[in-house]
Amino acid sequence: MNVNQFFEALPARYNASAAAGLTKTIQWNITDADPGVWAFEIVDGEGRLIPGGVEEPDTTFTTDAATWIAIAQGTQDAMRAFMTGRLKVTGDTMLATRSAELFGPQAG
Length: 108
Known about the structure:
- The structure is a single chain.
- With 108 residues, this protein is an alpha+beta fold.
- The protein is 33% helix and 27% strand.
- The protein has one domain (3-93): SCP2 sterol-binding domain (Nonspecific Lipid-transfer Protein, Chain A, 2-Layer Sandwich), CATH 3.30.1050.10.
- The protein has helices at 3-13, 65-73, 78-83, 93-97, 99-103; strands at 24-30, 37-43, 46-51, 59-63, 88-91.
- The mean pLDDT is 92.
- It comes from Microbispora oryzae.
- This is SCP2 sterol-binding domain-containing protein.
């Protein structure tokens, strides 16, 4: 899996029932990929992928492609990547912790 394949598959893994009533935007800044910015907008539980990102996401993950793919595949622990500085999270950190619930175990 490459980073573009991960994001293109994200809508199929989206768990709308876990996001019922939620209106938030999650963004990923992949520092060494093209395109490097992807967002997923949730409006009252309905979700859509936004290549290129948005102006003001609620939470943002920033990392390189290899780290994100390792997190997505379960070979890298997201918390360890965060603690070692390989993954940065800004904004609503509680939303960030819900990514596995919202997108399945390969979401980070």
